[in-house]
Design brief:
53% of the residues lie in helices and 13% in strands. It has 11 helices and 10 strands. Strands 1, 2, 3, 4, 5, 6, 7 and 8 form an 8-stranded mixed beta sheet that branches. A two-stranded antiparallel sheet has the order 9-10. Bound molecules: flavin-adenine dinucleotide. The site of flavin-adenine dinucleotide has 22 residues, from strand 1, strand 3 and helix 11.
């Protein structure tokens, strides 16, 4: 029995949202044991894909016509709160890439044929997706990517892609890769960045992946180094020729929102775990929950929760409005700003909450058998991936200060 649940927000939502979140809670409870086992074995939990896929929870934000549930951004955010709270950031990372970065990218930029071909399989978990932007030499600054495609930039040509992608979530198990590349040649222009849907099938020898195990945490998340060596991409799989930055900017709106919401879930679990432990553990003749300095930690975690969830849900609602008016560049910039701020706040609040919950746990708190200790290791990444704290700060300031003040050009 949890001491605190995310009921305030849920009670304001409609029936569909409640059904999605209840479904997610149920699936997570069924997955918990296996998730823990996978975490300690250091491998991705494949049951997660099966169960979330069977319930179509991998397609929350995907319309029913393409095999999803047809939920909005707030539904998705609240489902991610449940996922983060019950299973932690490995599960959040997996689903966020599958749903937020891959399926929603195809939904936004794909042709009708691409949507029909890929989205139902991504929503059901029949196919796994990965989002391949980062490279060894290009992280916060994607304009320095080195991956290339070598056919002329026309929608009527097949292509071959070569390059190395680094730190790619789901990369070892992916069937579908959203891949960013520049045309081959000496005169590379920023606006030529293009995006392709690369399929593993038929490219088994051209796509080599290697697991990256030496991570601080996220042990049940698959992270890969990927070599594309002349991987074949038929012309039907071109997602966008040129202005690939529009694609990743748009993908990160969903991606960052998912991470922020996952972090809210992490805080909720830290709060529940710290409360439970502090009521049970007796020192100096009374439960440690009766010591005022322990109460200060509990109260601070609750503050973290409030600090993180309000901007996250607010950003989700603003993104719901933006999704209806995607032609509005003003609304896009505002949504980007709200999401950047929410992600930064939630990621830092979650790291603080995990740290405090570990402290409340004392020596036991330092054990990864206690979920806040796992969160402490896992959630640190939220301050780095899908845009670091620093990049979120700069983006927010750029929105406020306006044209001419972009510090990260
Ligand atoms: C576990 C994990 C999973 C990941 N999954 C994926 C994935 O699925 N797909 C994908 O494409 N990528 C993925 N990434 C990569 C992630 O998005 C990048 O690590 C992140 O964008 C930062 O890039 P970088 O690591 O190259 O750091 P760098 O860009 O080298 O930055 C290093 C430091 O410098 C700071 N910095 C950089 N530029 C500036 C500036 N202009 N002003 C101020 N500070 C600056 C950064 O904020 C950071 O603190 C993943 C990373 C991890 C750790």
């Amino acid at each position: 029995m949890k001491e605190v649940e995310e009921l305030d927000a849920l009670n304001l939502c409609g029936r569909r949202t409640k059904m999605i979140v209840e479904e997610m809670e149920k699936v997570c409870q069924g997955l918990f044991e296996k998730e823990l086992e996978s975490y300690f074995e250091g491998k991705a939990n494949m049951d997660r894909i099966k169960l979330l896929g069977e319930r179509r929870l991998l397609g929350i934000g995907i319309p029913r016509d393409y095999g999803g549930i047809g939920g909005n951004n707030l539904d998705t955010a609240l489902a991610f709160v449940s996922l983060g709270s019950n299973l932690g950031m490995s599960a959040v990372s997996f689903m966020n890439v599958q749903n937020g970065l891959v399926a929603k990218t195809i939904l936004r930029w794909g042709t009708e044929e691409q949507k029909k071909r890929f989205l139902p399989d991504l929503a059901s978990g029949k196919k796994i997706g990965s989002f391949c932007l980062t490279e060894p030499e290009a992280g916060s600054d994607p304009s320095s990517l080195r991956t290339t495609f070598d056919s002329p930039a026309t929608h009527f040509a097949n292509n071959f892609i070569s390059g190395t992608k680094y730190l790619i979530t789901n990369g070892n198990m992916a069937d579908v890769f959203i891949d960013f590349a520049y045309p081959k040649g000496p005169k590379r222009k920023k606006e030529d960045l293009s995006v392709f849907i690369v399929e593993r099938s038929g490219n088994e020898s051209q796509i080599l992946t290697e697991s990256l195990h030496h991570k601080i945490g996220l042990h049940a998340s698959d992270t890969a180094l990927i070599e594309f060596n002349d991987a074949f991409v038929p012309k039907e799989n071109i997602l966008r020729l040129g202005r690939g930055n529009y694609v990743y900017d748009h993908s990160f709106l969903s991606g960052r929102l998912g991470i922020a919401a996952g972090c809210v879930g992490v805080i909720l679990d830290c709060l529940n775990s710290a409360m439970e432990r502090s009521k049970y553990r007796v020192q100096h003749g009374k439960p440690i929950a009766k010591h005022q300095l322990v109460q200060a930690h509990i109260s601070a975690i609750a503050e973290d929760f409030e600090k993180a969830r309000l901007p996250t849900y607010n950003a989700a609602i603003i993104k719901d409005i933006y999704d209806l008016h995607q032609e509005s560049s003003e609304l896009r910039k505002k949504t980007d700003y709200k999401i950047s701020i929410a992600k930064r706040i939630a990621a830092n609040a979650a790291f603080d909450a995990a740290d405090r919950a570990v402290q409340v746990g004392g020596g036991f708190g330092y054990s990864t058998l206690y979920s806040p200790a796992r969160h402490f290791k896992d959630v640190r990444v939220a301050r780095i991936y899908e845009g670091s704290d620093e990049m979120m700060t700069l983006k927010a300031a750029y929105y406020l200060l306006g044209e001419g003040f972009e510090a990260f050009k």
